[in-house]
Amino acid sequence: QICNQHNAEAPNLEQALHRMAQTEPNLDHDVSWFLLPSYWAKMVVALISFLCFANSYDGDFVFDDSEAIINNKDLRAETPLGDLWHHDFWGSKLSSNTSHKSYRPLTVLTFRINYLFAGGFYPVGFHVINIILHCTISVLMVDVFSILLGGLQFSNKGRRLNLAPKTSLLAALLFAVHPVHTECVAGIVGRADLLCALFFLLSFLGYCKAFRENKEGHNFSMFWVLVSVILGAIAMLCKEQGITILGLNAVFDALVINKLNVLELIQKLLRKDKSLENVGLLRKGLLFRITLLMSGGASILYIRWRIMGTGPPAFTEVDNPASFADSLFVRAINYNYYYSLNAWLLLCPWWLCFDWSMGCIPLIKSVSDWRIIALVALWFCLIGLICQALCSEDSHKRRILTLGLGFLIIPFLPASNLFFRVGFVIAERVIYLPSIGYCVLFTYGFSLLSKQAKKKKILAVAVLGILVINVMRCALRSSQWRSEEQLFRSALSVCPLNAKVHYNVGKNLADKGNQSAAIKYYREAVRLNPKYVHAMNNLGNILKERNELREAEELLSLAVQIQPDFAAAWMNLGIVQNSLRRFEEAEQSYWTAIKHRKKYPDCYYNLGRLYADLNRHIDALNAWRNATVLKPEHSLAWNNMIILLDNTGNLAQAEAVGREALELIPNDHSLMFSLANVLGKSQKYKESEALFLKAIKANPNAASYHGNLAVLYHRWGNLDLAKKHYEVSLKLDPMAPGTKENYNLLRRKLEQLQKKGS
What we know:
By secondary structure, this protein is mainly α. The chain is 65% helix and 1% strand.
């Protein structure tokens, strides 16, 4: 649909616009750079962007990938697709008090598709999609930058003209190889930013298409304006930042389509100038289109608000300490300091870190802090650019600077803490979209320097050197994102004061069995943040396993004192108290854990062990039954029930429980073994033998499996097979309890039989 508001100027307008394109100042004129046809320029950008991040394709699931992908039930086929629209990014219900409130159902849907096509959690497919997305976005940036730097002009056939082929290629290359993008590309969770950016750019390009018939805005396509709004909504369903494209489209419409001079407009409004109608707000349909964009944006936000609920996400002081400061002055100063650090990461992306919270950036609490210089420098530069963008007599310069600042600032607003508290100090992923504005400003600065420079080729070589360094930095940073060990260790030199960095290094070491090294990092995490309850809990667990029970108890008691609803710490404290034979305290700790986490199968399992130690068999069985109800695949709880019933002579009940367990977990060899023991005692030798053999096939090196099968054969009278399995058991474990005695009894019996036979 085309909205025709004024047709008087339609004849020969496109030819006039084409002539205007030749006379308008051209950034490419003084720039010494590669001039390639559009197709080849896009191929080069795609290739280089691929080279930057190609080595991340076979990386592991790292950091937040575990929660967003591996532990996210929304990816599994058994979860209804409709649940994605009521859950947050991490798979929690949006209505839950613990929800992060990050609503990105389309991103989660792509994860689910990845999971289904791969047939499981295989990271290669996830990484490949991220790399493809970044390459696609980088290619689109050639078109976007050609509009931002060269303006929006169409040929008389309606084809958009690229009036800045050299500078748009340079800007797209700067974007493609920027190292700050590594987190988005190499970290699978960064797909939210990539998908958001993709639809963000498509919305912008779609909005530009609305003026293909008439660039001045007299005629515009309502269809493409609405498509732009829909694409903006899709971008927001990938990540919250996507909604900002509607504001940028409005800015673009005013500055490029309507050539609005903001300073002139303000002056006329202040003077109540009667010539205000010449600005063309109504004549060119700008006001109508902006109203359409804002109405669309408001509707999208309202729908999201209704789905999300009114409650804000619950963040803690360690996530964003500045937002918890009592003083408005301290909050304002630190927010601005964070902005300056984000700007520095765009200018010099050398010090990159997966997490900037927990003391990584100490708060500025007074004006005597030397770091104030950074935010002064930031605002000095911003004010200078804003003044040039508003006051310059060169309309070309005004347009580029305003658009550059718009793309730099507007997409960053959701992460600025201005409208709501965010759950981070600095997050490199949120700079993905604002880096578009940085690339515009950098390229424009390069063109100005080229205009003044006598030796333009030296300047071009310097910029080429920056690109090469950035490619190398991207490759290095991508390799660090390939595994958690490399990622976490890379952060130690960047943020040595970050307790979470030390915690993650320690956790990674503990997972690999290196407890001694893990203890060192956990202790450092607790030293840096004396209220870091998760570090205390993990350290207490390791000390418990090393039988250093007193210190473990102190740490876990402190953790639950700091955070009384920390269910895991209560359970671990109960395990320690049980080991110290303080049974009443242990029981109380277990029930406190269950009080704070109603569905806690592991806690019921440990409570059952406590009751078994106290010979409270009925209570133990009930606790283990609760564990299996909450978690049907809880093998240890099933096993303990079978063994307890077996030991107390309840063979029929033990057999029934064993069969129930194997129906739920048919491939668990430990359950086969336990049930085989019960069946053997019930003289169901054939069935018992079959289960023993199946368990041995699944775990051939378990000495007890061979030993108990030998006992079965011994009872059954199959002495040769009994002798064979006794010998295998003793070979696997010469100290196996009871096996040697049973073997000696069998040998004596065989000798007696031989004597009788002779």
